[in-house]
Write a structure and sequence with these properties.
single chain; alpha+beta; eight-stranded mixed sheet; 5 helices; 25% helix; globular
Length: 200
């Protein structure tokens, strides 16, 4: 499947769940191909979804791997917020470029640290990568280059904004401990103005 056909398949897949996109931005980084970020919504509950498009173009391969597996894992990132924060578009594209730029696979439980606010004036500078499947189901597409014509699923990984202290807590205690803190506090992780959860 060509890059264009894959992108179109992802767009159709997302539109079936979220409706037509309501905006997009394209970012090109040195040494990488263009990554787009699509905005969907707000929906009736006021939730806006931001979806990367282009991260799945290449299968994710670890830096120490000598062979690129064409049937390797492919993924896109999904950020859900209450209300529009369109300055996140470029920053989300930066995170989506990590597998290519840093040769680092992005998997559930990973921390992606931007080193700057996720959007203008955001209290969050990092995201926790959550388990896929709950927001957007995997998309299985034919991988023409894969051995034996194997299917290459595209997984849609939710990303949860974190403060620097929350990110540090996760690194020490693991993602489940941070999730439990959020759950106990009734934290709305889609609230772009939420307070940092108590960590002590």
């Amino acid at each position: 499947m060509s890059d264009s056909a894959l992108s179109q398949a992802i767009e159709r897949h997302a539109a079936r769940e979220f409706g037509p996109d309501t905006g997009r931005a394209a970012v090109t980084f040195l040494g990488t191909e263009q990554i787009e970020v699509l905005r969907f919504g707000p929906d009736r509950a006021g939730i806006v979804r931001y979806l990367t498009l282009g991260m799945s173009r290449e299968p994710m391969t670890a830096a120490d791997s000598a062979v690129r597996d064409p049937a390797g894992p492919r993924a896109e990132l999904v950020l859900s917020l209450r209300g529009r924060r369109d300055s996140v578009l470029r920053r989300l594209a930066v995170l989506a470029a990590i597998p290519i730029v840093e040769a680092r696979p992005v998997t559930p439980g990973s921390v992606l640290d931007l080193g700057e606010p996720l959007w203008d004036d955001a209290p969050f500078s990092a995201v926790l990568v959550a388990e896929p499947g709950g927001l957007l189901p995997d998309l299985t597409v034919p991988a023409a280059a894969a051995p034996g014509g194997e299917a290459a699923p595209v997984r849609f990984l939710p990303v949860l904004p974190m403060t620097a202290n929350e990110a540090a807590h996760k690194r020490v205690h693991g993602p489940e401990a941070l999730h439990q803190r959020w759950l106990a506090a009734g934290t709305d992780l889609r609230d772009p103005t939420r307070c940092e959860v108590a960590l002590t």
